[in-house]
Specification:
The complex is a heterodimer of chains A (203) and B (274). Chain A is mainly alpha-helical. Chain A has ten helices and two strands, in the order H-H-H-H-H-H-H-H-E-H-E-H. A two-stranded parallel sheet of chain A has the order 1-2. In chain A, strand 1, helix 9 and strand 2 form a beta-alpha-beta unit. In chain B, 45% of the residues are buried. Classes of the chains: A mainly alpha (203), B mainly alpha (274).
Chain lengths: 203, 274
């Protein structure tokens, strides 16, 4: 069902009666706009990850040890939110340009999993860890559970960055001889290139 | 401008680089080194943005600039060393392409300008809480000259110049952070109106595939965006409140240092397209 929706998104949405390009194909075919979107997606990483790093380093007690955590967060997190909004909006537009490629890409699927985990960590931090902030706000080195949340945040976002970069590579594309579990994980059987198990080729 | 044209004598050495054992080793893990390059860029970006926004008078304004410099200089060093090492490593297997790329020398020049402005001007000015020591004045002029050259090559290199919209977008965002009250809304409304006009001009009035008319239209809009952004930035600079860290020159250091790193990153990304 998801794939059917993405096929419609890629090939039908916006296609005129004259059989011209769909909006997705038109976006992918632009001379420079797609490049600008991709570049903006990468550049906004400097704003997003760069600023969240500073907040997490404060939670670890590595920077601004004499400044309350709440003050660092209040001043830096608005920048992080702006960076995140740009990342998400450009990411959605990039996905819209090639939805089927991303749907059948294991790195993209793994990236979404880690993105979910990173966001879950944000929610847990906000509603649980941060509740007792009055007790550790001004401490140069916050308690272990706060530092653990910071380490989890950094680890999850680093995984998102690495996996995002791997999407551009074609090592595990559907249609190539790849391990069975990868074919299953990226639903190659339903892709236009099909699934080829490397094990069956060896036999 | 390509290195192949500037330094043709290097061709045999450049052609041999991808065959080195180190280049072969990097090639096998190229994507991971590329991701590390991005992470280093982000570390530098975050630390540099927070430090230089403070020089502009935005962000962590409750802390003296010297305190921010003391806390973040290590992370600026980590970012710069990271991009240099990972950049060198990922350049090895790709040396022939970079040697013939029009974007690569622009990136290198922007990197040089970024290093000059960061270590020669921004960090010393922040350390002195907004005073500009004499050596920093010299580095400021050198950094400005290098940045002007980067801008010139960026704007005049076919295939690379669309990347200037990254610079405009980043500058627009910084000014949005830097101005307050009713002016911020006027500024934002103007930007959105310009964007709407730009889209209508290049997608409704002109066929999106009519490059002969679309290209000069895009360039004209780039000038209008730049004028709008610079106008509001200038108003912020010269209407600044008295106070060491908010002097126009110090604010200008903050703006230019952030933007030169954006130029370096944008040129790097456009190596893939130009």
């Amino acid at each position: 069902m998801v794939r059917d929706f993405l096929v419609w998104l890629q090939t039908d949405l916006g296609r005129g009666a004259d059989g011209a390009q769909s909006w997705s194909e038109a976006l992918l075919g632009t001379a420079n706009f797609w490049g600008l979107l991709e570049g903006t997606h990468l550049l906004s990483l400097m704003l997003f990850f760069g600023t969240i790093l500073i907040v997490d380093l404060r939670l670890l007690g590595a920077v601004f040890r004499n400044t309350p955590v709440s003050e660092v967060s209040a001043k830096v997190l608005p920048l992080t939110v702006v960076g995140f909004l740009i990342l998400v909006s450009t990411g959605l537009a990039l996905f819209f340009a090639k939805p089927l490629v991303y749907y059948h890409n294991i790195w993209f699927r793994a990236k979404l999993v880690f993105l979910g985990l990173a966001l879950l960590n944000v929610v847990v931090f906000h509603y649980s860890v941060q509740r007792g902030i009055a007790g550790w706000d001004a401490l140069p080195k916050p308690p272990a559970r706060v530092r653990t949340a910071a380490v989890l945040s950094l680890a999850a976002w680093l995984c998102v960055i690495f996996l995002g970069r791997f999407i551009a590579y074609e090592w595990l594309e559907c249609g190539k001889p790849i391990p069975h579990w990868v074919n299953v994980a990226q639903d190659c059987a339903s892709s236009e290139y099909g699934a080829r198990d490397v094990a069956s080729l060896v036999q | 401008m390509r290195l192949a044209e500037l330094l043709p004598g290097l061709a045999p050495a450049v052609n041999a680089l991808p065959d080195l054992w180190l280049a072969q080793a990097i090639k096998a893990q190229f994507s991971a080194w590329e991701a590390l390059h991005l992470v280093s860029m982000s570390v530098l970006g975050g630390a540099s943005i927070i430090l230089n926004l403070r020089l502009i008078g935005v962000g962590m304004t409750n802390e003296p600039a010297s305190e921010i410099q003391r806390n973040l200089r290590v992370w600026i060093n980590v970012g710069v060393i990271g991009i240099l090492i990972t950049g060198l490593l990922i350049a090895l297997p790709d040396a022939r392409r970079l040697y013939n790329s029009t974007a690569f020398p622009v990136k290198m020049l922007a990197l040089l300008a970024g290093v000059i402005l960061t270590y020669g001007v921004s960090l010393p000015v922040a350390r002195a809480d907004g005073d500009m020591p004499a050596p920093a004045r010299g580095w400021w002029l050198a950094g400005l000259a290098a940045t002007a050259l980067v801008l010139f090559f960026f704007a005049t290199t076919s295939g690379l110049n669309p990347g200037l919209f990254h610079l405009l977008a980043a500058a627009a965002l910084i000014v949005l952070f830097a101005i307050h009250g009713r002016m911020r809304w006027i500024y934002l409304a103007g930007l959105l109106a310009l964007f709407g006009l730009h889209f209508a001009a290049t997608h409704v009035l002109i066929d999106p595939y009519d490059f002969a008319r679309g290209d000069p239209t895009n360039k004209a809009f780039a000038w209008v965006y730049a004028a709008w952004i610079l106008g509001f930035a200038g108003r912020g600079l010269f209407g600044a409140r008295p106070g060491a860290a908010n002097r126009p020159l110090v604010q200008a250091v903050g703006y230019v240092t952030i933007l030169v790193w954006v130029l370096a990153a944008a040129a790097g990304r456009w190596i893939a397209f130009a």
